[in-house]
Each structure stands twice: as structure tokens, then as C-alpha cells.
Amino acid sequence: MFKTRLLSGIVLVLIALFTLISGGKILFATLFIISLIGMNELYKVFDIHKKAPGICGYLFAIAYYGLLYAKPLLPEGVDWFLLLFMAFMIAMMIILVFGYPKYRTEQIFVAFFGLFYVAVMLSFIYRTRLLPAGIFTVWLVFICSWGCDTCAYCVGMLIGKHKMAPKLSPKKSVEGGIGGIVGAALLAVIYALAINHFGNAGVDVVRFAVIGAAGGAISQVGDLAASAIKRFHDIKDYGKFIPGHGGILDRFDSVIVTAPIIYYLAVLL
After folding, report:
1. What are phi and psi of 142, to 5 degrees?
2. Cis preceding-peptide flag for 101 (omega within 30 of 0)
3. Nearest-angstrom CA–CA distance, 116 and 183
4. What is the pLDDT of residues 195-253, one digit of tens each?
5. Under 8 Å between Cβ of 137 and 128
6. Which candidate in 151, 195, 209, 235 could, as Cys together with 199 as Cys, close a disulfide (CB 3.0–4.6 Å)?
7. Which of helix, strand or coil describes residue 238?
8. C-alpha distances in angstroms, 160 versus 63, 151, 227, 263?
9. Comparing C-alpha atoms, which of 19, 17, 23, 58 is closest to residue 38?
């Protein structure tokens, strides 16, 4: 099991290296595929992956990514994304009304939630890569999420005493959570120093530390939120797409919520 998990982890890192460095169409296509797989995993939990709400969710996810890619070519003055989401909401209402009582309101809500939670939020990795110096900034998404997770685990194992969310995740501690935030900030500082030295990036180390700390904090919320959904529905993993790790949502639960935070902090700071 450990060997399988390790090998899968190495493959994930190699794919991340290739896609993030390449950027452009390769990164876009990778995120698009991952988003659809992640949505399918979430929709399976609520049994809509092969039903009208889920199918509608997939179609609008495809439309969203198409709109994101074509945005530079579209006429200005129209909020195309808001228009798309309004159309999706109306489509969900139509399915609820004309499918009544076949679908529960929970299933309609999660179809709409799934588009935002998985497809839209993951797309911020691509958006971050498009920013000026995005080739450097985009790595903060993974440094904050995966780095925080590793640091939190190590600190929690060493000195963790106070439970953060005992009913939801008994193994996570307050000390581990703080250690994860501090660790993510330190990793961001080390990363900033490295790219300034070897890549002449010219990034502000203090700003990277702030982004690292904020990203580390929110990544833990994403991790716990994904766990809460699994606990409510009594499942161990969202899927088996990544051997030893579970599904896309099991591995990217913290990345999903971290990506938008990194994007907006990078823009603001």
C-alpha cells in the first residue's frame, strides 16, 4: 500500500511539473479532464452522475471551460460567466419542476455546487498560470496545500494534543494546524528565495510568506470540508482514480479551495 501510494505520488508530481511548466493548452486540457472526473466523483455520492442534474452539470462545466478559453475573443461589456451561471440555475430549476418528484432538492443543489466547487475553483490554477510571472506564482497553490498538509501532519504527530475537529477528523490537532500554516509560510519564503536566486524572479519574499500562510490556512478548511461530505455519506474515498490516494477529490480537496485564494492574493498583493 505504501509503495503504491509513493509511486502514485511521484507520478502526480511529474504530471504537475510537466503541465504547470508547459502551461497553455496542456495545462488547460489537464484541468478540464480533472474537473470532469472530480465532478463525477462528487455526483456519484449523491447519485446524480448518470441522471439529468449531473449530465446538465457536465455540460455546463464544458461550457464554462470553453468560455474561459475563448474569453479573449468574446465581445466586452457582457459578463459571460454570470450569464452562464444564471443559465445553469434556470436549467436546474427546469429539471426540478418537470422532473418532480424524481429528484430531491439536495440533488439539484449539489449539481450546481459541483460546478463551482470542482470545475470553477480548479480553473484558477490555469488563471494563476496566466498572470504575469504566473509560471512562478502558480506553484504556491501546491506549496500551500500539499506543503501545509505535510507540515501539519509532522507537527501534529510530534506535539499535537488539542483536537481541531474531534468528530470530523480525530487525528487533526490545533498544534498541527498552526504548524501547517507556519510551515506553508516558511516553504513559500524558501521558494521565493530560490526563484529569486536561480530564476531572477524578483518576487517579494514577505508577500510570498503572507500568501503562503493564508493559503495554508484555507487549504485545511478545504480538506476538512471534503472530509465532512464523506462522513455524512459514510464513504472512505471519493474514488479509486489515483491508486493509494483515492479519487481526484481525495487528493485535490485542499488544492481546490487554495487555488482561488492564491490567484486573488497574487492579484491584490
Report:
1. -85, -30
2. yes
3. 29
4. 999 988 888 999 999 999 999 999 999 999 998 999 899 998 898 888 878 899 998 99
5. yes
6. 195
7. coil
8. 45, 12, 20, 31
9. 58
pLDDT in tens, 49-58: 999 999 999 9
* 228-244 b/e (C-beta count within 10 Å ≥ 16 → b): ebbeeeeeeebbebbee
Rounded Cα distance between 51 and 102, Å, is 10
C-alpha angle 5-239-119 in degrees, rounded to nearest 5: 105
**Distance from C-alpha of 107 to C-alpha of 232, rounded to nearest angstrom:** 15
Q: Indicate the pTM of the whole model.
A: 0.92
| 49-to-27, 56, 77, 100, 169 alpha-carbon distances in Å | 25, 10, 35, 18, 27
Grid cell, residue 57, equals: 452539470
Give me the amino acid identity at 266: A
The candidate with the shortest Cα–Cα distance to 9, out of 259, 269, 245, 254, is: 245
Q: How many residues does the chain have?
A: 269
Q: Are 179 and 155 in contact (CB under 8 A)?
A: yes
